[in-house]
From TrEMBL, chain A:
GO terms for molecular function: damaged DNA binding; single-stranded telomeric DNA binding; zinc ion binding. Belongs to the replication factor A protein 1 family. The keyword Zinc applies. It comes from the Eukaryota. Heterotrimer of RPA1, RPA2 and RPA3 (canonical replication protein A complex). Residues 304-402 form the Replication protein A OB domain. Residues 6-104 form the Replication factor-A protein 1 N-terminal domain. The lineage of its organism: Eukaryota, Viridiplantae, Streptophyta, Embryophyta, Tracheophyta. This is Replication protein A subunit.
Automatic annotation (TrEMBL), chain B:
It is found in: Nucleus. Residues 74-147 form the OB domain. Residues 16-36 are annotated as: Disordered. The keyword Zinc does not apply. Residues 165-269 form the Replication protein A C-terminal domain. The gene is LOC100782819. Its main location: nucleus. Keywords: DNA damage, DNA recombination, DNA repair, DNA replication, DNA-binding, Nucleus. It comes from Glycine max. Belongs to the replication factor A protein 2 family. PANTHER family: REPLICATION PROTEIN A-RELATED (PTHR13989), REPLICATION PROTEIN A2 (PTHR13989:SF16). Pfam families: RPA_C (PF08784), tRNA_anti-codon (PF01336). One of its GO terms (biological process) is nucleotide-excision repair. Residues 21-34 have a biased composition (Polar residues). This is Replication protein A C-terminal domain-containing protein.
Length: 620, 277
């Protein structure tokens, strides 16, 4: 049809032919959808032809059309195959729309046929209470059809032609900006677009099972608020709220936002219940707020490890992994995950784990274009300590690929001219070598030396791991600094009688061996001083050279004594340490063995931020 | 200002003089075993002002006390000036912005000489050393001083001084989660009328209100125009933070005030005075 409108007397036609044969030629039946709502995996609605209404159902196989938004409340559908059934124990009937298609999206309002033009003949019929002859009835129908058609056309024209109804609605309802809302206000109406929509989640608590979901709403001024719906309200509004569409909302409840779960910048959050009013504004463009980033550079992520606040990062994608399936412990559900490695102009890389849709959709996109080194800007990431520093997306993280923002341009420029060939270093490297002990970031578990020393039973049964910052105050020059080690397995070797060295582990002799540190040093911080045991890898970082090199220096006797000089240069240096503590017994006296597991140079900028954070906690 | 001038005069009076540290035998290399009578040694980050504000310990005339902790080894960061070198030692003045202190480094080995030569006049350096206190004069016997290469280290050092100061001050107080001015340590010997270090982070309002009840403080705070005009009231955490009192103390006062009818609870954990309510 050229004009989209309901078929006159469509409902009567449906009722007259309740079970059409599938091969028969059906008349054109177009009805309006009213009161559309989900029931299980089916949808119930009321079919309206302007004059008569009929309860109706859309079966589950047609559900996708409703979910996709093709079939909308107040919209028009054409019934292609149907059955009219009796409702058990009731005199009513209902329509089962076995096959139907969308004709029009939501109209402005419910279609009603106008009776003002029916003419003189209708009045006598009503007064008399008696039906006239069939011929007269036939004549009367023609003017009515014409009127109905005009009415529907007029509605459609209004919908597409102008926004007069919306303007009238705004004035009538006194739409208020979000910023003016407070919990002590009376009736209010807001006009907002849905800028974020969460998943429907189920929960269990003392009062039984329930479901909840929330949306982020944005008004024309860009103010945002989060709205939460539980149980019946959640089921009622979940399908009503479509991302990007605009709605009038009223009769919600406001309360002070819970800072623990704060998501948008607003002092309040909204709860909608069953009685809340949500009405879509047709034809309005969404108020999309500009995504604002507060980027943290990759080499500055250390102090954010395991903190509650989320960070934004921007970087060039260096690597994209394949999709992995991670089984969640809580409900044994598999979740897709994909790891990408990004770098920025600090020449540090970090691994970002993308989850769910970000792993499958965005991750796939990144995998396709990884050769072109795309720039990604990611909002709301959680910082973890896996492999020192790692990042993870959460439910509301936003990933923009090659965004049109100045930071992306700057990064692209840096990468093209310098970064492409630069040697990258993982942001976590140095802060934690990969180890079976699960060594974590040097910014977690930070303690003072006195906390270790004052607790002699620390590490009983299981070594205790901590981070600390201290100065090396003394390395005794004449201690046994190293041992002779097998070059293959690093185990201790013994000198053979003839020549070479024997390794028990490898069960063979070798002409050469290497030296490996096993060293004791004294360390101080602002609270105490104590001895620490240091092994080869960590000792090399403290001393500044390998044990072999130091041995060569020791052999150079002379006035300058480079051996002593090297040790003295290592003294009074400041480091970040990751240590393990175990109790030890020596000559009947209880002692502590403090072993260094990792050594990292002090990043004074990060250290200042860390200490300022500690100062804030101290004041609280 | 007078105090600062006094310090400067003191430095000027002794600079170039014949005084030597009394413990010349104790160098950085000695395997000096700390005395069993003393607590474990620490390495305190300090500012020069903290050193001059320090008081003398009662039992040992050599050591100083800062924030209730015996000071032995210290670390400072500042600019080197007035550097004068001899065969046996180098003297210089360290200026970290809070004051100036005279320093002395003995040149025992080649590495000492190399280290001394690496420092030029006006350079920022990090010092590790032992604090000396002799006849009212405070000097630093330097174990190590090295150029600052990462200038974030300067800001980091001052932040560290603040942190360790607060940490040690907090350790000394008997009441946890509560900060108040340090008690005046005993003064002995050459130090007279020593002013205890000011706790910069204390709320002056709280310190000035000794004797005033917590209820009165809470009521005053809620009567403040900015707070009384807020429809939703003020959250208790905000009140506790601003007044510098613990949450337990605050809630006790709040309960009393609610019983009196002076304030009421609006929404969860928010309170408002009945005036203009």
């Amino acid at each position: 049809m050229a004009a989209k409108t309901v078929t006159p007397d469509a409902v009567s036609t449906l009722l007259a032919n309740p079970s059409p044969d599938s091969t028969s030629d059906l008349p054109d039946i177009v009805v309006q959808v009213l009161d559309l709502k989900a029931t299980g995996n089916k949808y119930m609605f009321t079919a309206n032809d302007g004059k008569t209404k009929l309860k109706a159902m859309i079966p589950s196989d047609m559900r996708s059309q409703v979910l996709s938004g093709a079939i909308q409340n107040l919209g028009l559908i054409r019934v292609l195959d149907y059955t009219v059934n009796d409702i058990p124990n009731k005199s009513d009937k209902y329509l089962l729309a076995i096959k139907c298609e969308a004709v029009s999206p939501a109209l402005e309002m419910e279609i009603k046929s106008e009776e003002s033009g029916s003419g003189i003949l209708l009045k006598p019929k009503v007064e008399g209470g008696v039906k006239t002859e069939g011929a007269a009835a036939g004549i009367l129908l023609k003017p009515k059809q014409e009127v109905v058609t005009k009415s529907a056309n007029q509605i459609l024209r209004e919908q597409h032609g102008n926004s007069a109804p919306a303007a009238r609605m705004a004035m009538t309802r006194r739409v208020r900006p979000l910023v003016s809302l407070n919990p002590y206000q009376g009736n209010w109406t807001i006009k907002v677009s849905v800028t974020s929509k969460g998943n429907m989640r189920t929960y269990k608590n003392a009062r039984g099972d329930g479901c909840v979901f929330n949306v982020e709403l944005t008004d024309e001024d860009g103010t945002q608020i989060q709205a939460t719906m539980f149980n019946n309200a959640a089921r009622k509004f979940f399908d009503k709220f479509v991302l990007g569409k605009v709605y009038y909302i009223s009769r919600g409840t406001l309360k002070v936002a819970n800072k623990q779960f704060k998501t948008v910048q607003n002092d309040y959050e909204m709860t909608l219940n069953e009685n809340s009013e949500v009405e879509e504004v047709v034809g309005e463009a969404s108020f999309v707020p500009e995504t604002k980033f507060n980027f943290v550079q990759i080499d500055q992520l250390g102090p954010h490890v395991n903190k509650s606040e989320l960070v934004d990062v921007i970087g060039v994608v260096k690597n994209v992994s394949s999709t992995m399936s991670i089984r969640r412990k809580s409900d044994n559900e598999s979740i897709p995950k994909r790891d990408i490695t990004i770098a920025d102009d600090t020449k540090k890389t970090v691994v970002v784990s993308l989850w769910n849709e970000l792993a499958t959709t965005t991750g796939e996109e990144l995998l396709d274009i990884v050769d072109k080194s795309p720039v990604v800007a990611i909002k709301s990431l959680k910082v973890g300590d896996f492999q020192g520093v790692s990042l993870s997306t959460i439910g509301r993280s936003v990933v923009l690929v090659n965004p049109d923002i100045p930071e992306a341009k700057n990064l692209r420029s840096w990468y093209d001219f310098e970064g492409k060939d630069a040697a990258m270093d993982s942001v976590g490297s140095g802060s934690s070598p990969i180890s079976n002990n699960g060594i974590r970031s040097v910014y977690t578990d930070r303690i003072h030396l006195s906390d270790i020393i004052s607790n002699p039973s620390l590490g009983d049964g299981k070594p205790a791991f901590f981070s600390l910052r201290g100065h090396i105050t003394f390395i005794k020059p004449d201690q046994a600094m190293w041992y002779r080690a097998c070059k293959t397995c690093n185990k201790k070797v013994t000198e053979s009688f003839g020549s070479g060295y024997w390794c028990d582990g490898c069960q063979k002799s070798d002409e050469q061996c290497s030296l490996r540190y096993i060293m004791v040093a004294k360390v101080s911080d602002g609270s105490a001083e104590t001895f620490i045991s240091v092994f080869n890898q960590e000792a090399e970082k403290i001393v500044g050279c390998s044990a072999d090199d130091l041995d060569n220096l020791k052999l150079q006797e002379g006035e300058d004594n480079p051996y002593q000089m090297t040790l003295k240069e290592a003294t009074w240096a400041q480091h970040l340490f990751r240590v393990s503590v175990t109790p030890n017994e020596y000559n009947g006296e209880k002692r502590q063995r403090i072993t260094v597991r990792a050594v990292v140079p002090v990043d004074f900028a990060a250290e200042s931020r860390f200490i300022l954070e500690e100062l804030s906690k101290m004041r609280a | 200002m007078y105090s600062s001038a006094s310090q400067f005069d003191g430095n000027a009076a002794f600079s170039g003089g014949g005084f030597m540290p009394s413990q010349t035998t104790q160098g950085p290399d000695s395997s000096f075993v700390p005395s069993k009578n003393r607590d474990a040694q620490s390495l305190l980050p300090l500012t020069v002002k903290q050193i001059y504000d320090a008081s003398q310990s009662s039992d040992d005339k050599i050591n100083l006390i800062i924030d209730g902790v015996d000071v032995t080894n210290v670390t400072l960061v500042g600019r080197v000036s007035n550097k004068a070198g001899r065969i046996t030692d180098v003297t210089f003045v360290l200026d970290d912005g809070t004051g100036r202190i005279e320093c002395n480094k003995w040149l025992h080995e080649a590495v000492d000489t190399n280290e001394a030569e690496a420092i030029l006049e006006g350079m920022y350096a990090r010092l590790h050393g032992q604090l000396k206190h002799f006849q009212g004069k405070r000097t630093l016997n330097v174990f190590s001083f090295r150029p600052v290469t990462d200038f974030n280290e300067i800001a980091s050092h001052f932040t560290d001084c603040i942190y360790v100061h607060l940490y040690n001050s907090k350790l000394r107080t008997s009441v946890p989660n509560q900060q108040h001015s340090s008690p005046i340590p005993p003064t002995i010997g050459y130090q007279a009328q020593v002013v205890p270090p000011t706790n910069q982070f204390s709320d002056q309002h709280v310190n000035g209100q000794k004797g005033v009840t917590v209820e009165a403080m809470v009521l005053d705070f809620l009567h403040h125009p900015a707070n009384s005009s807020r429809n939703e009231g003020v959250h208790r955490d905000h009140i506790a933070q601003h007044l510098g009192i613990s949450l337990d103390k605050l809630m006790l006062a709040v309960k009393n005030l609610i019983d009196e009818g002076a304030i009421y609870e609006t929404i969860g954990d928010h309170y408002k005075s009945i005036i203009n309510g």
